[in-house]
Amino acid sequence: MNIPATALNIASSVAPSESPIAAYVHIPFCRRRCYYCDFPIAVVGDRPPQWQQGQVEFGTIAQYVEILCQEIQATRSSHSEVQTVFLGGGTPSLLTAPQLEQILQTLDRQFGIAADAEISMEIDPNTFDLDRLKGYCNAGINRVSLGVQSFQTEILQACGRTHTAADIYAAVEMIHQVNLTNFSLDLISGLPHLTLDSWEDSLEKAIALFPTHLSIYDLTIEPRTAFDRRYQSGIQPLPTDEMTAQMYRAARQRLTEAGYGHYEISNYAKPGYECRHNRVYWENRSYYGFGMAAASYVGHQRFTRPRTRQAYAEWVQNHGGSTIDCPVTEPTERLLDTLMLGLRLAEGLSLSQLAEEFGERSLQKILTCLKPFQRQGWVEISTRHLYLTDPEGFLFSNVVLSQLFKELAPDGS
To answer: What is the CATH number of domain 331-408?
Structure first.
C-alpha cells in the first residue's frame, strides 16, 4: 500500500509555539461491544488470546497496525518532541508486545518521543498475562489505565463486560509485579442495578488496590447502544439522577479523604500523578491523533479520520490528510472550546490568558454571564482565575456551559 508523497502535511506549517506535544493512537479492537458503548470499534470475538501463538486469530489487528504506522510515517513532523503518548480504544491490550513496540518505534522515528515522556495504555482485565505486560513495559509503556468499571461481577455482566471481579485483582497483581507504579483505575457510576452501597463498596475496593490515579465516569445512555434500547434515564434498574449525584459526591468525599486530588471533573490523582496527556486536551493545546476515527488538533485545525477500518485504510492509501479541507477554527469556536475544556479542571481558567487570547470584551461577557452562577455557589471568580466549585459546580457544569454557549455563540444557539 503506497501513500502519496504529499499526504498528511497538516502539521507542516505549524508555528513552534503551536507544535503538537502529544499523540493519541486509537486501537479499535474489542472482544465484544459493551452495552453502553458507542465508540468506533471492531469486534473480534470472546475467544481468549493464544499467548504463545502470537494471537494468530486476530490477524486483522496486524493489518491495522501496518496501516496505522503508514499514517504515522506519512505525517510531517513539526520538529518538536512528543511529550505524551496515549493508546486508547477499543482495547489496546489486545495488541501483542511486538505490535505495540512497532507503533512506538514508528512514532519515535517520525517525531521523537521525549526521554521523560508519559506513555499510557488502556488495558482491560482478562486480556493480558504477565509476560505480555512485561513486554508492554519493555516497549516503553510507563502508565496504564485499567478498565475496571465495577467490582460487582453481576453488574459487570449486566454491562456486557468480559471480565469478573476476580480478573480485576489478578490484573492489579500483575501490575504490581512489574513495578508499574503509575496506574489508573476506571469506575462508572449510574450503572444498572448499582446502589449507593455497592458504589461505595467499589470505591473502597479501588482505594485498597493503591492506584495512583482514578477516573470516575457517570453512565451516559448513548443513542443506538444496547442500553439505549433497554433503558430510559432515571427509570429502574438505572439509578435516579439524584442518586447518581449522591454517587458523585460520595466519590469526591471518599477519594479526597484517601489523599487523591480532585484535579478534573472526572479524575483524581495522588500528588505528581495527574494524567499529563489528558491535560493537553483540557488546556486546549495541540495534539496528533492517529488511527481509525482519531482526532487531531494542529495549528487551530480539528481533523477526524474515517470511523470504519475500510474507510480509514482507503483514506490512508488514497488521500492522506492533504486533500481534505481542514478549516481553521474560528476565534469564537476556540473560545467556546477553551471554556468547555478548561472549566473541567479544578484550577479553571486564567483570566489574564483569556483576555490576552480573546480580548477584554469577551472576558467581560463571560464574567457577566457567570454572575448568577457565582451567586448560586457553582462558580468562583477570583482576581486571577475562573473555576467551577467542587462538587456542586462540577455537578451542574452542563448548565453553566449551556448558558455560556448561548451567550457567546455567533448564532445565539
So the answer is: 1.10.10.920
